[in-house]
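Input record (one chain):
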Amino acid sequence: MGILAKNTALGRLLAASATSLARAEHLDETVLTGAIDAGRMVLLANPAHKNVTPTLIGQPAMVKVNANIGTSVLINDVKMEMQKVRLAHKAGAHTVMDLSTAGDLHAIRKDIIAASDMPVGTVPLYGLAQKYVTRGQDPSDFSVEEFLEEIERQAEEGVDFMTLHCGVTARGAAMATGDRRVLGIVSRGGSILARWMKRRGAENPLLERFDDVLGICLKHNVTISLGDGLRPGAGADAGDAAQWEEVVTLGELTLRAWERGVQIMIEGPGHVPLHLVQSQIEGIKRLTHYAPLYVLGPLTTDCAPGYDHIAGAIGGAMAAYFGADFLCYLTPAEHLTLPGPEDVWAGVKASLVAAQSAETALGRSWAVARDLAISKARAALDWEAMAREAIDPQMLRKRRENHRDERECAMCGTFCAIRMVTGIDDAPVPRRGKKKG
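The corresponding structure, as predicted from the sequence alone:
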């Protein structure tokens, strides 16, 4: 018996959307349904999120891109965060995660859910810890019952997927601290839970009460994104004992979730040198039973501050080629500051480039057709057709603005190789009329 027989909310959702999803994802309905039932795809949509677009994660469906937004203690501008939601959608993101840690988190989350037809994800631990931080208390002072209440509260509000660091064991946290790693624990959620366990000499409450977590998520069809709280934050730490200890635990929890009918994604590595990306992705997928894999980057070099969206796109393209299903963007602000609106745009576009690159290499028909279409448009010097196929049409038009009346690009001009040898009409592109006034 698969997941659909145990998750009635998911079954109703799939029955209503299977045909349109299959068409959009270029898949047969039976392939889609079978993959969801087996846990190899997830369908993000909480029934309480009224305007949500059900979104499929898991290859061979299209590789999806997530955009992180949210306030911080140092930069708390809710209007800007709402602008970032709109820009993420316009740029082509498929989901958005609210990682806010400052302000009225309930109100911020409510506004984001109401404004977004993209599935919305959160990290419930942030909302829990923030209550204590604002009172000047330790962020790990919370009780287990409070944690479960926070998860249920957010599920009732309409959150579609949640990062829950259920696999951070006391043993794994010990492996990641002290002199065992260059950069210790870099996950905020992972570090709070490690602190909670150390102060009490106890095991991870999410692990101990995992059945209760499953009950909440099943009721609301919330997909659990099993967090990588011990992910490597430096290339030198990639593939160490702490990371794999967590991955093995996540694999065990995946089977328990499927037994209850709860949808699961696995969160993947952060910093991974280029030559280790394939083994990391394939190893994680195998140990977690080929559940959908959600990766942050991965970043293939540690020394690109200001350009981490590029390092992440390199790693993301490789990761998707080797089986990752869902790319969490990185922006030029990574490791430096809170992303602004322009960073969100750049981050989404970089991840879309990564996804397109991987899907073309995998021979996916829609990706191959898109690359071929823009190549044919270039051969014809058809700039409008190029814009239609471009990942960022706005950028194409912006960079051509000063020479938009020329048939060639401004780099080649009359030295244009295409016009030189292909016989394209030598007449210039018709001039646009001057604006009045």
